[in-house]
Amino acid sequence: MTIERLEIRDFRCFAAASLAAHPETNLIVGPNGSGKTTLLEAVHVLGTGRSFRQRDLAPLVRHGQPQFALSAAVGNPRQLIDATGGPGGLDLRLNGQALRGTAELAPVLPVQALHPEMHALIEGAPEGRRRFLDWGAFHVKRAYLDIWRRYHRALKQRNAVLKASASPRDLDVWDGELVRAAELMDAGRREYVQQLARAFADFGGALLGALVELRYQQGWQGDVSFAAALDASAPRDHLYKTTHVGPHRGDLEIQLQSMPARHLASRGQQKMLAVGLGLAQAHIIATTTPRRLVLLLDDPVAEIDRDRAERIAAQVARVPAQRFIAGLTPDAFPGEFDRVFHVKQGEVSQVL
Fold first, then answer.
1. What sign does the CA torsion over 52, 56, 62, 63 have?
2. pLDDT (0 to 100) of residue 332
């Protein structure tokens, strides 16, 4: 599903703006601070219900206004997605009908963003990698979201029992449910990581000209069952009043030349690894879901040399998607564009 038209109102620096998008490659150019990234961010909110820059909705509202309003017409069959949001939360509608949650957006408008902070996937905390992994698994296996919710519901209840200093017997009610959900969640992750690892070896290897690999860490000692790990962790869980093992402690280890990339890779290599990981996931989503992916690239070749920029452009071209690319000038990203937009002081004009 591609975006035909994007409408935004009172969103960051934009009082009102619209953009008639091309189904293939759209380039958005303009000086720093003009609103290029904001346009990509608006698409991301419409596809995922959140910004790729921050969690809080309040800063997305233009100063002095109560809320923002976003709308996207997506085609064949044509549907209309509306999002209004602000400090009070987010209201999402599809063809005028309220949606129960952001997960209902994904089948209509699957979105993958590559942005400057993606290097945190390599050097940052495990939470970001878990979120990245779960987002991909959800797209590939729709039942995964229900499993994820089931696990986190049981985890929340178990932690509440621990915080209440209840007896070990009181945990039995939730331990069984936690184990069952954890096993399903772990199986879903493993299945997805197999796909992601193959795609990452392809895209990441092409970008770096080196061996790149993924290692999945399940969140407990690998040679025992989760039930056994949970039982062994019980004394510590009671002492610290929280659950120490499980998929919520899982992680992805990104390797370069068979070594952990967070210790070996330079900042430039980290960026290329993150782009490779993002493109690998984008390619999987684009080739396994019935709707066409929307790929957002925020200044993807900033601060890198021309050779690396051309490698990125070549790999981006392999992903079957509608693309929105933000850059300072039309020659900032190698390749050809079907439509070019210029952004200046909160106004958007089509120049090609």
1. negative
2. 81
